[in-house]
């Protein structure tokens, strides 16, 4: 399908970047963008978003180029959609609907599907009017079932449709809550185990999943633990958590999360709140940035804004500039909390592990224990959970120089030399 994209340029400094994003989003929805239209306005026109003249221009452009859709850079009101439809004769898709479409086509897990459906219905609800309500799509509004019988006499078709959608949202939310509960239990369990957590966050397509897979491979994890990575927007819609157990027995949990884009629809942020909030529990965030993209600094701003929106604040962060192989920079390098690396290079991943260790385990205690030969189990336990710096066999038993957490240290206090 051929499409025209259009946006309103006001004072915002990152307008070019948001238009480039819109183009990428359109392409992610299998649309071919043939023209880009910009209009300088302080704010959108209430009735038509773009000026009427501009809209007529688009109608002609579309006719000449055979375009079928118009995609606009902001969320539209129902009136704006209707009026633009009338003037241009095109299918109108606003930025929110476009992002919802992409999420919808990517959702694989039960949870992601529910979240997307809820967001879509939330978007539809205020946009129902008599004509649109008749086109209510079967899949989303369909089996809300039951309850028709006690509707008040004289209820209009519109009111009925609103009620059906509302009911469906409630139902889906209930289902989602049950899944969330399971995740909450899993999270609590992890917390009890006292294992530190690292979350990969960042703009969509920056290389979070590739980084996760690289680290898994580096520590020799089975291939079936790998997550889906692909050169497309929003490849990941579910959080995946993996255990990273290093050869020196230090271990942490690594989570790969859903990527961000600017102006992420509030309906989606709300529906995906629990998925997005996974990073809230983290001890360390790795913000993965596509260092080869000219808009990298805008993408960082977008990521930080979104993290704030979902309440992920005050967690230490490493800025990880990925895809260095596509730049002239030498890599891997680390300066302060800025890493330049490539998720596809082993040396880079090794450095990343070192940085994570420096951040997570700086509070490890160093002790020397002497364990009588009769307490072989203790040696076994230390070998499993502590970083062993040296092992010595002396007359009284095994002498171990180790690094371990304060919690573990408390457990072995009696063996201190
Ligand atoms: N050249 C190069 N490509 C990379 C590098 N890291 C990732 N990529 C590519 O970037 C694309 C996106 O990678 P993903 O890991 O799926 O990105 P993501 O951040 O998980 O994206 P979402 O899940 O959509 O948010 C893939 O085609 C990767 O192969 C890198 O260091 N160098
Ligand atoms: Mg991903």
From TrEMBL:
Cellular compartments per GO CC: cytoplasm
Subcellular location per the Swiss-Prot or TrEMBL entry: Cytoplasm
Gene3D superfamilies xref list: 6.10.250.2860, GTPase HflX, N-terminal domain, P-loop containing nucleotide triphosphate hydrolases
UniProt-listed SUPFAM superfamilies: P-loop containing nucleoside triphosphate hydrolases (SSF52540)
InterPro entries named among the record's database cross-references: G_HFLX_dom, GTP-bd, GTP-bd_M, GTPase_HflX, GTPase_HflX_N, GTPase_HflX_N_sf, P-loop_NTPase
Chief location: cytoplasm
GO MF annotation list: GTP binding; GTPase activity; metal ion binding; ribosome binding
Annotated positions binding Mg(2+): 209, 236
Top-rank taxon: Bacteria
Keywords (A to Z) from UniProt: Cytoplasm, GTP-binding, Magnesium, Metal-binding, Nucleotide-binding
Positions bound to GTP: 202-209, 234-238, 256-259, 322-325, 342-344
Pfam families: GTP-bdg_M, GTP-bdg_N, MMR_HSR1
The protein's required cofactors: Mg(2+)
Residues annotated as domain Hflx-type G: 196-364
Subunit structure: Monomer. Associates with the 50S ribosomal subunit.
Similarity remark: Belongs to the TRAFAC class OBG-HflX-like GTPase superfamily. HflX GTPase family.
HAMAP family tied to this protein: GTPase_HflX
Protein purpose: GTPase that associates with the 50S ribosomal subunit and may have a role during protein synthesis or ribosome biogenesis.
Protein name per Swiss-Prot or TrEMBL: GTPase HflX
Gene this chain is encoded by: hflX
């Amino acid at each position: 399908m051929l499409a025209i994209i259009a946006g309103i340029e006001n004072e915002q400094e990152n307008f070019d970047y948001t238009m480039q994003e819109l183009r990428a989003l359109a392409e992610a929805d299998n649309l071919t963008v043939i023209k880009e239209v910009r209009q300088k306005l302080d704010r959108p026109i209430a009735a038509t978003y773009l000026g009427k003249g501009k809209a007529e221009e688009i109608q002609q452009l579309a006719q000449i180029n055979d375009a079928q859709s118009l995609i606009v850079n902001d969320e539209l009101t129902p009136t704006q959609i209707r009026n633009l439809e009338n003037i241009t004769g095109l299918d109108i898709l606003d930025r929110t609907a476009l992002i919802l479409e992409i999420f919808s086509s990517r959702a694989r897990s039960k949870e992601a599907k529910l979240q997307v459906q809820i967001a879509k219905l939330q978007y539809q609800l205020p946009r129902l009017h008599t004509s649109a309500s008749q086109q209510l799509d079967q899949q989303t509004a369909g089996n809300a079932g039951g309850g028709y019988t006690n509707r008040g006499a004289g209820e209009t078709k519109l009111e009925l449709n609103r009620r059906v959608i509302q009911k469906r949202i409630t139902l889906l939310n209930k289902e989602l809550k049950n899944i969330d509960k399971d995740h909450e239990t899993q999270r609590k369990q992890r917390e009890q185990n006292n294992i530190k957590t690292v979350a990969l966050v960042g703009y969509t397509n920056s290389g979070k999943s590739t980084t996760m897979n690289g680290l898994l491979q580096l520590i020799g994890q089975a291939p079936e633990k790998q997550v889906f990575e692909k050169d497309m927007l929003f490849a990941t819609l579910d959080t995946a958590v993996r255990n990273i157990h290093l050869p020196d027995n230090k271990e942490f949990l690594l989570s790969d999360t859903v990527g961000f884009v600017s102006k992420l629809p509030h309906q989606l942020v709300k529906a995906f709140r629990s998925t997005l909030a996974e990073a809230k529990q983290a001890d360390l965030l790795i913000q993965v940035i596509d260092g080869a993209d000219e808009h990298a600094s805008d993408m960082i701003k977008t990521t930080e804004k979104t993290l704030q929106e979902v309440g992920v604040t005050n967690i230490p962060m490493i800025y990880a500039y990925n895809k260095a192989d596509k730049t002239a920079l030498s890599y891997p390098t680390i300066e302060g909390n800025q890493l330049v690396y490539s998720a596809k290079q082993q040396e880079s991943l090794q450095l990343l592990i070192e940085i994570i260790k420096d951040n997570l385990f700086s509070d490890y205690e160093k002790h020397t224990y002497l364990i009588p030969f009769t307490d072989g189990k203790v040696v076994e336990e230390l070998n499993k959970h502590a970083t062993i710096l040296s092992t010595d066999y002396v007359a009284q038993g095994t002498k171990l120089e180790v690094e371990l957490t304060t919690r573990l240290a408390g457990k072995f206090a009696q063996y201190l030399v």
